[in-house]
């Protein structure tokens, strides 16, 4: 696989300077004072990347609790798809109108109608509250690592690489946690939510590559988006029924179903499930983000006298990966969705391959390298997708073989990404003289006008 930062690109590491623009009033007036106080509690001997990794560790703890309590998302799938459980939930809530789904079979493949569900206990309410606290603290630590870097003189390209890498992994894990909290199970909605969240993250990174600035709008994923998810976890923890709350219709939850005028208007057929309504809102947010990101890229490119159309080619790697993984997930008559252990592993493989793709883009950004249009992590998924849709699959010819193919993809993605992280961290720390998890006084760091990079 070789070096990801060739020697001729090393001088760019010394020239790199972070540039960001945060237009969020919540960041400025609400969370900003909290972040400023929090960073002052850390000694100057604590490395910024240690703070970043600690935040991701909290998310991993949340994810481990999901794996222990419902590691196959079986409860959400059963509650949404199994007619007996759905009627029981409906009667327990005393709802007059049945919840309505945008999709047939509530967003599950037809092949799952006869699925026998495991007797998985419901996740205790207090667990969801720990998820909310853990995610909020992740956001806080993620927000102050840059402040700590400036306090200690450790700011540099490695910090941005490390920060974006942890954020990319968190995006996938939070998506799975949110699917459990929203009670969507292993449905099409779970895949759609993963596509939306990963696409939002990629767009922000793509935008930064072409503009040189990390834009956070008045309503952004790292700030308001995370707070919204924290709110979902908290609501799930506090309302009766836990995650089943989100499977009720929006008119049932608001009490409008008891109104005569609502019944006269025939709103019962629009009593959309609350979780599907929320995820639809998220999809609309993705569309708005696409427009805003491209607007910033177009403005930056035109100000430099460059084509505003060429950057759109940089979205092809995202489209290819998202389409490939979706096609694979739906192949073999939905076998990946039917097998909970396979589905969770599949999403993790998807997320790690995505983190690798974003990592390549960040490396290109900090080293002023050409846009990375291709990476080998997508090739395995492409082969898996093709095999899954063959009339007679060559490899994935049985549920056991499907699971083997998915777990192999996960292992390969982890191996590629770990090699990438090791190579990039080693190269940057050696070139800049700034260790990853240790604070070095400025006088002991390599000056920007010295070192191997100058000779390249």
Automatic annotation (TrEMBL):
Segments crossing the lipid bilayer: 277-297, 309-331, 343-364, 371-390, 402-420
Main location: membrane
Subcellular location: Membrane
Gene Ontology CC entries for this record: membrane
Domain of life, source organism: Eukaryota
Pfam families xrefs: CDP-OH_P_transf
GO BP: phospholipid biosynthetic process
GO molecular function: phosphotransferase activity, for other substituted phosphate groups
Family to which this protein belongs: Belongs to the CDP-alcohol phosphatidyltransferase class-I family.
Protein name: Choline/ethanolaminephosphotransferase
Annotated organism of origin: Tilletiopsis washingtonensis
Upper classification of the organism: Eukaryota, Fungi, Dikarya, Basidiomycota, Ustilaginomycotina
């Amino acid at each position: 696989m070789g070096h990801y930062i060739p020697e001729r690109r090393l001088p760019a590491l010394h020239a790199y300077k972070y540039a960001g623009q945060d237009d969020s009033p919540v960041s400025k007036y609400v969370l900003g004072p909290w972040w400023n106080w929090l960073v002052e509690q850390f000694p100057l001997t604590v490395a910024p990347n240690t703070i970043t990794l600690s935040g991701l560790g909290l998310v991993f703890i949340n994810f481990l609790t999901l794996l222990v309590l419902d590691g196959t998302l079986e409860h959400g799938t059963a509650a949404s798809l199994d007619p007996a459980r759905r009627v029981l939930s409906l009667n327990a809530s005393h709802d007059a109108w049945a919840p309505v789904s945008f999709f047939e079979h509530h967003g599950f493949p037809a092949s799952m109608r006869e699925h026998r569900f495991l007797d998985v206990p419901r996740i205790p309410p207090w667990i969801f509250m720990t998820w909310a606290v853990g995610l909020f603290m992740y956001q806080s630590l993620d927000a102050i690592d840059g402040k700590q870097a400036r306090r200690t003189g450790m700011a540099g390209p490695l910090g941005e690489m490390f920060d974006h890498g942890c954020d990319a992994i968190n995006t996938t894990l939070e998506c799975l946690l949110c699917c459990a909290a929203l009670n969507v199970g292993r449905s099409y909605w779970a895949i759609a939510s993963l596509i939306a969240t990963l696409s939002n993250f990629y767009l922000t990174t793509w935008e930064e590559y072409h503009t040189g600035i990390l834009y956070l709008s008045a309503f952004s994923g790292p700030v308001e988006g995370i707070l919204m998810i924290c709110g979902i976890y908290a609501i799930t923890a506090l309302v009766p029924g836990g995650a089943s709350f989100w499977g009720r219709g929006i008119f049932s939850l608001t009490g409008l179903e008891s109104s005569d005028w609502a019944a006269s208007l025939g709103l019962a057929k629009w009593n959309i499930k609350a979780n599907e309504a929320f995820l639809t809102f998220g999809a609309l947010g993705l569309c708005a983000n696409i427009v805003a990101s491209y607007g910033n890229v177009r403005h930056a490119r035109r100000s430099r006298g460059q084509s505003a159309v060429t950057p759109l080619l940089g979205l092809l790697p995202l489209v290819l990966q998202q389409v490939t993984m979706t096609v694979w997930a739906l192949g073999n008559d939905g076998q990946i969705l039917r097998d909970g252990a396979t589905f969770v592993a599949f999403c993790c493989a998807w997320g790690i391959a995505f983190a690798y793709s974003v990592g390549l883009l960040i490396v290109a950004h900090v080293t002023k390298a050409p846009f990375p249009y291709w990476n080998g992590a997508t090739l395995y998924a492409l082969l898996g997708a093709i095999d899954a849709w063959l009339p007679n699959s060559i490899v994935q010819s049985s549920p056991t073989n499907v699971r083997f193919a998915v777990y192999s993809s996960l292992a390969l993605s982890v191996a590629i990404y770990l090699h990438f992280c090791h190579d990039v961290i080693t190269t940057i720390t050696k070139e800049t003289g700034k260790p990853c998890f240790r604070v070095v006084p400025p006088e002991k760091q390599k000056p920007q006008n010295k070192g191997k990079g100058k000779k390249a």
